[in-house]
Structure formats: C-alpha cells, structure tokens
Amino acid sequence: MQNFIHFYFILFIQSIMSILVENISKTFGNYQALSQVNLEIKNGSLVGLLGPSGSGKSTLLRILAGLEIPDSGRIWLEGQDATNFPLQQREIGFVFQNYALFPHLTVAKNISFGLDIRNIEINLKKQRVQELLQLVQLEKFADRYPHQLSGGQRQRIALARALAVEPKVLLLDEPFAALDAKIRKQLRGWLRNLHQEISITTVFVTHDHQEAMELAHEIVLLDNGRIIQVGSPNEIIDYSPDNSSNRFRNTSNSFSFSFPG
Fold first, then answer.
1. How buried is residue 85: exposed, middle or buried, by Cβ count under 10 Å (0-12/13-18/19+)?
2. 143 pLDDT exceeds 70?
3. Containing structural domain, residue 110
4. CA within 20 to 30 Å of 124's CA: 3, 25, 104, 211, which one?
C-alpha cells in the first residue's frame, strides 16, 4: 500500500512540475561541479539560478538543456525521464550569453533558423517570424544583420529565435551579462513582461543578486555545487559572496549548506 501511495504521489508531483532534478551530480576531472542536487520547477514559473563563479549554476543549466550528461541522477521534463535525451528531443529553447547569432543571416533568417531545420511550410514560417518580431518589438529590423543591432536588440533576437520552435522550457545562460547596467535593467523589465504574456517555464543563470531579485518568481541559491536555499525574492536572504570563501551569508551570520526548513 505504501509503495502504491508513493507511486501516485510521484505522478501527481510530475503533473504539476515542468522540471524535476533528482540527485544530480557532475564532476569534471577532480572538480565536483554538482553534488546530489534536487530541485522542482513548476510549470510556467520564472526561476533564477544565483551563485558565484564555480557554484554549479551554469553546469546545472547545461544539464537541463542536454548539453552535459550528469554522472548520476535524473532529469524529468513534464513527467518524462529526459536524462539521456539530446537537446533536440527536449523541446527546450536555449539562449547563450554571447547571443550566438549567425552574422551572415538577417534578423528574420536568424529567427527562422530552427523552423528551416524542421521544414515548416513557408507561409507558416513567415507568419511565425512576424509574430516573434512583434513580440520582441523589432518588426522594423527584419532585414538587418546582427552587426547592425545594439547588444540589447541582439539579445532580444536570440530570445525570439529560441521561442520560434515553441519550446516547453526556455533556458537563459547569463543573458544580460554582456550589456551595460542601463540596458540590463531595461531588458529585465522587458523579459518579465514577456514571461507574463507567454507563460513559458523559464530558468535563467545569473551572478547578479539584484537581477535575480527583480526578475525571478523563485530563486535558487547555489554554492560549491550544492543548493543552499530556494525561495521567492522575499524569502531569500540578503547575501554577499565573500571573495576568499565564495560563501553566501546574511548581514550578521554565516550558515551551513542545507535546505531551508
């Protein structure tokens, strides 16, 4: 009876969770990038992975995308064990920090790249590209090339390209790190509004405390390959990464690595 209840409890959790990370560990040589990480990400949520360099946040994002394979543990995407699925089978859109736009293609062609690979009918493809240009507010730039755009515009095109194939999950690897402070703030507001409009499950990596607080519905704090706290911006402690120890601490006390509660 107990096993029966446990089985249906797992099915229930999977039905409301877009992503389940189960006991994920990853090493690179002698370096422990992730150690027994567990995480639940709800459908339609906007989640920030926050931590200093070397905390494991980008490794976790790449494992979610299928760009890295964990040494142990499992990744569940909408109830399916996707641990060994390649990127193209995961229905995931991935946005790199450096945009990774094709310099020889126009804005419209960059956005339609994934649709071209899938042999989408030409009229449907044109309609989808036009919808995305409107979504990212760059309709007038369809025929321009990446070098003719600002950094903020290139980042929006990278997002549009990731959304073109209608992924179930959107992953962003420090999407605003290469931009100046003013543009970063503008794009944070824009991305938050965009997420409210399309409600796609979104996970982004950042080392910027303010960015995580302004943008995320839920923040996952990582350090030394472990999750040390998960919560809403109001629930997350104020932290300061100590350069010598890379530890998160509040204003008066340091704390050990543990899950809250």
1. middle
2. yes
3. 101-166
4. 104
